[in-house]
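Q: I have 190 residues here and want to know how they pack in 3D. Can you give me a structure?
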Amino acid sequence: MKNGTMLQEILAYNQKFVENREYEKYETTKYPNKKMVILTCMDTRLLELLPKALNLGNGDAKVIKNAGALVSHPFGSIMRSILIAVYELQAKEVLVIAHHDCGMSGLKAESVLTHMKEQGITEETLNTLAFSGIDINHWLHGFDSVNDSVSHSVDIIKNHPLMPKNVPVHGLVIDPKTGKLDLIVNGYQD
């Protein structure tokens, strides 16, 4: 695809979408109907599968996505988004939903660094980050077990000093082919 072609296609489609008032069938409020916030992976297979497998329609849940459905820092943007959903947007439950066959599973920083260098990131830049105290190898490392990763993210959320103790935090793993959910952590039992 030629440079700029994708953006042009998106903008042309969007213009027709708005002109035809197709947005009307998606109208809802900023508050989730089912009072939940979901942290899940950005995997393309989950875009439509995950909501269908959970019986979610437009407006039912706040959905936060990142690589691996990870809470990697207790005071990063993922945790901030979860707290905003709970305190400002009426979410009463949190679901962490990772998936089998995730690209973050077994991901090693060396592979990412090699691709970065192929795209022009210099050793000097990487050294500057290291001298600044950033452990790039740790930051880019994935996880070895999806179940352990989900449990770890649930623990960070559940035990966060700003998270209300009455908010259940559940952990699940979805099959990206069938949509089958495996329960890892039942937040009602904690």
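Q: Anything worth noting?
A: The chain has a mean pLDDT of 95. The two ends are 50 Å apart (CA to CA).
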